[in-house]
Every structure is written in structure tokens, then in C-alpha cells.
What we know:
The chain is α+β, with helices and mostly antiparallel strands. It has a single domain, classed as Gcn5-related N-acetyltransferase (GNAT) (Aminopeptidase). It has helices spanning 14-29, 35-45, 48-56, 108-122, 137-145; strands spanning 4-9, 60-67, 70-78, 91-99, 127-133, 149-158, 161-171. Helix 4 (108-122) links the parallel strand 4 (91-99) and strand 5 (127-133). Keywords: Acyltransferase, Transferase.
Amino acid sequence: MPSIIISKAGIKELATIQKLGRETFYETFAQHNSEEEMQNYLDKSFASEKLTAELNNPDSQFFIAWEEDLPIGYLKLNSGKAQTELQDDTSLEIERIYVKSSHHGKKVGQILYDKALEIAQQEKKKYIWLGVWDENLRAVNFYKKNGFVEFDKHIFRLGNDEQTDLMMKKTLG
């Protein structure tokens, strides 16, 4: 397998993040949601204006996983006020780790997670946290394997559908 390279993404990678985000979210969740709700979510969450604001936010960081010149996954991290919840300055949120289904099982998610851990340690964070859909057992098990424990739950809305996300964290030390 060719080596995977992780690069920090900026505004010039907007189109790549947008395409990768829409593709990977759809691959992961389309079978569990209506086509209309999926398209509405994708249109809002990956709109150019929204992604531009996120890419320009100094408290958010994006990284793309590349296999040669093919983007195969990405990572979004938030600190401070950019965090979706908690907004604890001593924590780092993993908002997204998404990998194309063609690359599941090839350690791309682990490489992206390792990058998140490296950033958290560089920034001397006390813990790293995330929300993960309770029915996405592949992801839940991945985070448990990496030392995360559940500490709360919250509701994630996709259209009119309320879904339960497990909130998980890993204390760093």
C-alpha cells in the first residue's frame, strides 16, 4: 500500500475538504437516513461559506490524508470557542475524522487520530474529546480501542431525526 501523507489544510483546500466531507459523510450515514435529509444536511454543513468560516477560524484545524495525489480522509480539530460543546481551554475536540469507505481498514483513521493526539500534546491539553453516533459501532469501538471512555450523551439532529451521540473523552498525561 502506498504511504499516507497528512497535510494541514487551509482555505486553498476548500474544494477538497468540501468534496471529501460530502462524500465520506454520505458513505457513512446515507443508509440510515432519508435522501432528502442527507442532501439538506450536506448542503448546509458543507456549504462554501460555512467551510470558509471554519477554515479561517484560528481555533479550528483541518488535516487531509493523502494517498499519492488522492485525498482519502480528513480530520477537523477545535479548541477554545470553536468547540461544539464544552469549550474548555484545557481540551481539544475531534469534530470529524472521516475516511473514504474504500480505505476503511487501512489504518487511515488511526493515522488521523494519531495526528489529533500529537496536536493535543503539543498544545498541552489535559484531554481530548468527541461526539460519536451511538449506532456507529465501528467508530465507537475505534475510540474505545484508543482509550476513550463515555462521559455523557447529546442529541445530534439530522433533519427531523434526533440521533444520540455518545460523548467520549481521553485524559492525556
